[in-house]
Each structure stands twice: as structure tokens, then as C-alpha cells.
Amino acid sequence: MDYSVLQQCMHCGLCLPTCPTYDETKLERNSPRGRISLMRAIADGEMELTKAFGEEMYYCLGCLACTTACPAGVNYAELFEVARADIETKGVLSAHKRDLVRWLTVKFLLTRPRLLRGVGRLLYFYQAIGLQSLVRKLRLPALLPRSLRELEPLTPTVKRHFSDALIREVETPTPSRYRVGLLTGCIQDLAYSDLNRDTADVLLAHDCEVFTPRLQSCCGSLHAHNGEVELAREMARRNILAVEKSAGSLEKLDAIISNAGGCGSHLKNYAHLLHDDPVFAARAVLWSQKLKDIHEWLAQIGIRRPAAAACAARVTYHESCHLCHGQKITRQPRELLRAIPGLELVELAESNWCCGSAGIYNITQPEMSKKLLDRKLGHIQKTGASVVASANPGCSLQLQTGLREAHRSVRVAHPISLLAEAFRQAKRAE
Amino acid sequence: MNELIALLGTERVLTAPEDLIPYSFDGTAALKQRPRCVVFAKTAEEVAAVLKFASGQGVPVVTRGSGTGLSGGSLPVAGGIVLCLAKMDQVLKLDEKNLTVLVETGVITQKIAELADTVGLLYPPDPGSMKISTIGGNVAENSGGLRGLKYGVTRDYVMGLEVVLADGRILWLGSQCVKDVAGYSIKDVFIGSEGTLGVITKVLLKLVPKPRTKKTLLATFSRMDAAAETVSAIIADKIIPCTLEFLDKITIKCVEDFAHIGLPLDAEALLLMETDGHPAVVEEEARRMEAIARQHGADSVTVAQTAEEATRLATARRSAFSALARVAPTTILEDATVPRSELAKMIRFTQEVAVRHQLRIATFGHMGDGNLHPTFLTDERNAPEMARVEHAMQEIFDYAVKLGGTITGEHGVGLAKKKFLPGAIGEASIGLMRQLKKSLDPQGLLNPGKIFDP
Ligand SMILES: Cc1cc2nc3c(=O)[nH]c(=O)nc-3n(C[C@H](O)[C@H](O)[C@H](O)COP(=O)(O)OP(=O)(O)OC[C@H]3O[C@@H](n4cnc5c(N)ncnc54)[C@H](O)[C@@H]3O)c2cc1C
Ligand code: SF4
Ligand code: SF4
Predict the structure, then answer these.
(1) Which residues in chain B are closer than 8 Å to A35, comparing Cβ atoms?
(2) Is the ipTM of this complex over 0.95?
(3) How many independent structural domains does chain A possess?
(4) CB atoms closer than 10 angstroms to residue A422
(5) What's the CA gap between B244 and B264, in Å, rounded?
């Protein structure tokens, strides 16, 4: 554990009221300050790295709300990743069920882009021919081992076409003022490939030539957040290579675009992740400099208002933790939504409070995850909005699951999709 | 332990090391002590039962709110119980007719402020930690805030309180009446008692009407004295601003690096001034403050024209602590306080001390009420430097006392300032405090060793 990062915490407690787990239990050990004190006790040799510590660090959402509140600039993101990696190295949490879920998701599927899409294909057919609803009606999941059964309701509804089929590797608008790389994600590519198409459309409408590498890998954030740093580094190298291959070199690009809050936050961190890699260190620095969240990039080059067209929806905005706390991007998505003619933006209470999705937290800690989801759904209901905008696939899946189970007909959409629709509508009106 | 568990249930009695380590410090730098256990009470009766148990066993009890104290007040005592009131957090009654609110002491200060705001009232004490500090901690430390000059401190808003004594007696002290001289004002003894005399379980707080409007000004100076003279002249002109805050050169630089507000980096001093109240009065006072600042040599005076601009100007002061806390591994925030007329001397002395001991000390604070925050930017792992910090602190406190000031304006004595107390108030006063403590807590079990040695 890096002592200087730990010591930066002056135990002032200002992070406590923004921490969802502390808010729930009012116990210091469930707070950022408490967790840091435990890490420090381990670093100081006052305590062993125990199972209880391991459980504590997996009870933490990794939402990074504490980093927004912290006056001392404590780098909790790094502490969190290092602590989870140490926990995995020590193996204090080893248990069959946990190992199976982790192996299946983090280590196996998410490191194999081709296989992941293969599974996605199967899932698509499973859902498309109505098998999923049949299986659910017959309560067949009850026959699965518990660990897999808990995953079933969370499996995303898979799209028929993935990004590679929807977006050509190079798309060039006229005029073309900027050149950007587009990252399409892994789960996002299965569940929200249409959003990737929307992102490309919006970029084209802003005069950006778009390079989209084929068969992209996971960004590695789930690996880094779940203690698998080596795998995370491998994912990072693959992504850098893929973008270089598509665009010629990183230098040729004005920006590399991510449209998923959680991925973007991690993607921006490649410079740090690969800082001691002899081959990739310098390229990773360049990568991190060019990496931009889509909202951030559009705000930077100037958001274009679609020509007046009707979009008479009341929309509220849920902030993805890693967009607002991880990347400190809060203003730009709202500006973007306000740029859509006819759209009424209503603020969501506790908009920057975690929805409980948090990577695979909804699988590992279903109880706390559910509490946070209910809290979020309550606030959404109060806004009276018919659309909730969210810029992270994990959040969108979590909100959709929650809304579906509560039988509420609120649509979940990415701000970029709403903007893309407005552009399309404007075009049709022409 | 079993008795405590029988009393409160397993969930409210913590004993595992992973549970105790997070309670072994408060907001004070470099103090650490693991307790024997941490217990959570939810009612005055439970507090009484815990205290009776502790008296029976002869175990010390340290009351704790949110543990944000800056003098080690809620630092556990070895082998003792930490009695945490964070779960005793109900607002009991908001009385709009009498302008009061009755709360349990685990309620977060900010929550009280927000509640008052919803009905057009104001709870003025606004310590920098109010987002998480408990009102119990505020009362026990008699906390101040940015509005002290005009509105006073926590004590000025406590009308009554419920307290549990060491022997388990539960008493109500004070009343709802603005005027009340029935007997000694014993409630005042408990305000600022730092958990050494009893456990406060409820407080009745006074609220005031919310001022209709506010105006914010920011002035910069190339001479310290010009800033100090401006403050004196404003007060001599019979204006009582609600905010009169000061930043020194180092603080200005750190704030600018952090928040990019556009502050001049060559300024020696910066004043943030606010006046609130009736719109006509506010307008007129703001004009006079601007004129006074210019007459006394301000290099620039900015008057906020919009609410957004006011917020931007106020950021200069509000982010001072964050900006400083980032630049060094250890930040020690002190609160030496002097009569207003001596402010310039005190600040200059602090700067001299910093140079002499080769330390980085940034000073900011509440210029209106003489409460300064000399802030040591240091590293607790650097033993020689920490020794110099100790010396510097001693000199700063000695000098503050010499100027007719005090060693702590709002953070309390606790453990961190215990050794400076005799020099500040004299042995006779401490003797009287000891006598008082003995009569209320004969076994010496409530937060022993804080403020003074038994
Ligand atoms: C970033 C920061 C900014 C701050 N700014 C200010 C400021 O502007 N002004 C200011 O005055 N202080 C300030 N403080 C200091 C601190 O926040 C206050 O002293 C606050 O009142 C402590 O509240 P707490 O709930 O954290 O109490 P704790 O730290 O838990 O306890 C403080 C003391 O009160 C006692 N106590 C707590 N609750 C009770 C109770 N119910 N009955 C009896 N005794 C009790 C404890 O035993 C201890 O001695 C600041 C601290 C930080 C970290
Ligand atoms: S990351 Fe989120 S859950 Fe974890 S300590 Fe920070 S605020 Fe709490
Ligand atoms: S806000 Fe930052 S410095 Fe304060 S306790 Fe939390 S992590 Fe530590």
C-alpha cells in the first residue's frame, strides 16, 4: 500500500455523509475514513489483512463519491484498487461460489472479446425466441446453481447487431474537421450497440471523422476494480494497439472517445496503469491525454443544437458515479440535454448518488445494491419524468431492471441517444 | 461485555479490531488510541444505563459524535468505552411559533440548518465541518463558524438541554423562555465541557428569521496592515458584517492553484466581506464597506453583482482549507485567537515564527472576531520538523495570550492543547474546573484526561 496516499487522509470525516454504505449503517468501518484507517493499520503492521477487511473492501461500492467530497484530495480510487488486488493475492475471501462467478465474468468472458460476442449471440437467440420469458415463467432458473441463478435476472437484453455490424471502421463526414477514435465497450456492445451507432452519428454531425477498431476488448475496469491488475494491463495494451491499428497512430487522432462513464474513468487512467511498461508507457501517456468522454469532447468543440424538432419529453439525469466522481464531468451532459429542442430537464434529487450497479456489485452484494436502487427509483418517480438519461451501461441495466420489476414505464436512455434522435428527427423534417 | 450486549444488542456493541480501529482517532493529526469497545445508544435511558454500568465497573467513557474534533476530544481512552451518539439522530420538534427546534444530539448540524431554511428561518452557527459534525459535538465544543461576528457561536443558540450525569441521572436544564433567571444557569456549564461533565442527549435550539438578502465583496491588499485597518474601520463605522474573512499570502497562492479564481498572486492579504439583512441596508452597507476598503489602500475591490458571482468570490474562502490540505501530507489547523485590534501583529508574528523555524504556516481565519487559523503544512513522519512545529506552536500561543487572546477560539482544549492551558488561564481557574468535575463525576470516568489532568 502506498503510504503517502494513505497519509494524505487527515481523518476529517467530510467524506462520510456522501458515502452510501456509511449512510446506510452509520458505522465508521463502512465509511471511506474507516476503510482508509484499516488500510493504514495494515500498512503500519498493526493488523493483518483479514477476511473481515476483505469483506469490507467488497462492501465498498467503489463509487468514488468520497473523492468528490474529500478536501485533501485523497486518491481513494487507487487505494481501492490496490486493496482489492492485495485481497485477491492473499486469497482471504476464497470460496467456491465467489470464485466461480469471478472466474466466469471477470477472468474468462471479459478477456475474450470473440467468445463474449459468441455468448452474446446465444443470449440474443435465447431472448429473441422468447425462451428467456418462458424460462422465467417456468421458474427454471431455480434449477441453476445459486451463483448462476442470481446472475440470470441481470443478464442484459442483447441487441441483434453488435457495433462492428452497425459502424464501419472509418466513417468520414464532409466537412471533416476532427479525427477521433471511438471505443465501443464490451457489455455495452452487446446490450447497447445502437448507442455506439448513435455516438458515431453525433460525432459525424459535429464534423468528426470516426475510427472504430473492430472486435474491441473490454477496457479492463472490471479487472482493475476486482483485484486483477495484470489482466487490466493486458486489456489496456490490447486497446491501445487496436486504436493504433485503426487510425494509423495515436498522434493522428484529436481525441479517443468513450461513451460509458465507468469505462472512461478507467480508460483515462491507462497512463498510470502502464507507467512502468517498457513498451507502452509513453503511448499510454498519449492515450490518456487524448481520451475524452463524449460529453466532454462535444462541450469542448461546441455542442450543435439540432434544428427545432419536437421532443416534448420531461427528462431527468442520473449521474454515473465514474462520470461525475471519477471524471468530474457534471455540467456537460446537462448542457447537452438542454441543447435538445423541446426537452425539459428536471433535476433528480441525489442525482450523483450510486444506483447500486457499481460494476458487478449488484451480483456480489445484492442486498445493499437493492437498497440503493430503490432509493434511486423513488427519486426518479418524484421527478415525474418519462425518460431517465444515464451515461453508463451498468447504470442503465440496473435502472432498467429496477423499473421493469416495479412495472414502471419510464424509458432509460443515454443523453447521446436522445441527441442523435433529435438530429435524425431534424433531418427527416428537412 | 455481555452486560452491554444484553443492554443494547450485539449490533450496537463493537469489539472486533476491524470495527475498533476506525474509532481510534478523531479529526486531530497524529493522535491514536484503540478503545476496548464502541457502543451506540439510541435514547437517554440507554445512555444512563451505559453510564451506570461504567460506574459500576470503573471503566472510562468517551462520548463521540462524528469524530471531527480538532483537539482530540473524542479520542478514546485506553481500555475505555466509546459511547457513540451518531444513531441518536431524530429531530423531535420544529416550533415555528417560538422559533425553536428540539433535536437529539446525534443530528448532523447541516440537517438542522436545512430544516430551518425550509420554513424561512436560520440556524446561524456554521462550522466548516457542519456537513458531518453532530449538534452534540457542536454544543460540547461550543463551536463557532464564519458568522460569529454578527451572530455569535453555538452557545448563543442553546436554550435548553437534556444531560445524563455520570451516575445515570437524566436532567433537563434551561427552558423555552428567552428570559429565564430561575437559579444558576447550569446548562451553560455543559456547553463547551467537551464530554467531561455529562452526556448531552437533547438540545433545544433558538432559530432566527432568515435575512432577506446578502451582498458579497472581495478586496485584495498589498500590505497586511491595510487589511487589518480596513477591518477596524468597518467596525468603527458601526457596520456588523456577517462575514469578514481573511486569507494570507500563502493561502491565496494555494487557493488560486487549486480553484483558479483569478486571485492576484502578489497580494499580501485578501478579505471576503458579506453583509446580510434588509435589502436597503445591505445595499448601503456594501457601498460603505467598498469605500472604506479603497480608502485604506485596497488594490482591488470586487462587488458581486449576481448570486453566481457571489458564490465564486466566496469560493476563495470556502476552498481555503481544501487547498491547504492538499499541499502537504499533514495539515495541522490551529485556532489562536486575539482581540481584533491585535490581528495584524498576530499574523505578522506567525509569519516570523514560520521563517525562524523553517516551517510552512499559512494563516486564514475569521478576521471579524479575531479567530485565526494558523495552519501548519508539514509531515508527521518528519520527526525533526514536528519538533519545530511544537516549538512554533508554543510561541504562537504564548504570543496570543500576551496580546490578551486565547489558545483556542473554537476547537476546544481536549488533549492537543492541554499543556498550553495553564499558561492561558492559570492554575487557579483549572483548580476550580477540577472541583466542578469532581462534584459531577466523582469517579472521574467521563472523558478523563481531557482539558486538564485529573
Ligand atoms: C474540516 C473541519 C472543519 C472544522 N471547522 C470548524 C469550525 O469552523 N468551527 C468549529 O468550531 N469547529 C470546527 N471543526 C471542529 C469540529 O468539527 C467541531 O468541534 C465539532 O463540533 C465536532 O463535532 P463532532 O460531532 O464531530 O464531535 P466529536 O469530535 O465526536 O466530539 C467532540 C467533543 O465533544 C464531545 N461530545 C460529542 N458529543 C457529545 C454529547 N452529545 N454530549 C457530551 N459530549 C459530547 C466529545 O467527547 C468530544 O470531547 C472543524 C473540523 C474539521 C475536521
Ligand atoms: S467509493 Fe463509495 S462506497 Fe466506497 S468508500 Fe467511497 S463513497 Fe463509500
Ligand atoms: S474527506 Fe478525505 S481526508 Fe477527510 S476523512 Fe475522508 S478521505 Fe480522509
Answers:
(1) 22
(2) no
(3) 3
(4) 24
(5) 19
